Amino acid sequence: MDMIRITSTQPEQTYGLGKSVAALSRRGDCITLGGELGVGKTLFAQGFIEALASGKVKVTSPTFALLQTYDCQTAEGAPVAVWHYDLYRIERESELAELGLEDALAGNHIVLIEWPERAASLMPSDRLEVHLKLTGEKERLISLHGSTTWRNRLSALRRI
Predict the structure, then answer these.
(1) Is-above-0.85 flag for pTM?
(2) What is the pLDDT of residues 34-66, one digit of tens each?
(3) What are the start-end ranges of the H helices in 34-147?
């Protein structure tokens, strides 16, 4: 997997990185968001989804609902559904059948998954892994690991 690291010192930078990754996304993409509680996973997801929804939606954390779906458009203008999962409250992978995670991953959607380790055996090998880690009071190190389909797309982020 290809990898880049970005330091974020302000919430706007984390949100903006989500927007930048959204501009590179395509139908069928899976993007996982890992890191400790409160590190900025949902903030990244908000930037991502709001960019593809042209700011026409209010993105909330699906912590209690477990899944939120949004009607969006790819950067090229093609319609796409974004399925945003928050698996924090999942205790067993068997609980995921009711959420349609396998169907979402097999579909033509863009799937964002917070707490992907709760569904590790279901994660596709072709994905972008975003991991956020606090390195200071307000500083985050954001690592992006991409499979081969992300290699060229991630190179665009290096120019940011």
Answers:
(1) yes
(2) 999 989 999 999 999 999 997 678 887 777 778
(3) 41-52, 101-106
Q: What is the CA radius of gyration of the chain?
A: 14
CA distances from 3 to 45, 53, 150 (A): 19, 27, 10
- Strand 140-146 versus strand 110-114 pairing type: unpaired
- Residues near 119 by beta carbon (within 8 Å), at least 6 away in sequence: 87, 90, 93, 96, 101, 113
In b/e form, how buried is each residue of 134-159, taking b as 16+ CB within 10 angstroms?
eeeeeebbbebbbeeebeebbeebee
Between strands 30-34 and 140-146, the pairing is unpaired
Q: How far apart are CA 148 and CA 125, in angstroms?
A: 10
Q: Tokens 């992907």 sit at which residue? A: 116
Q: How many CB atoms lie within 10 A of CB 91?
A: 8
Spell out the residues 6+ positions from residue 58 whose beta carbon is closer than 8 angstroms to its own: none
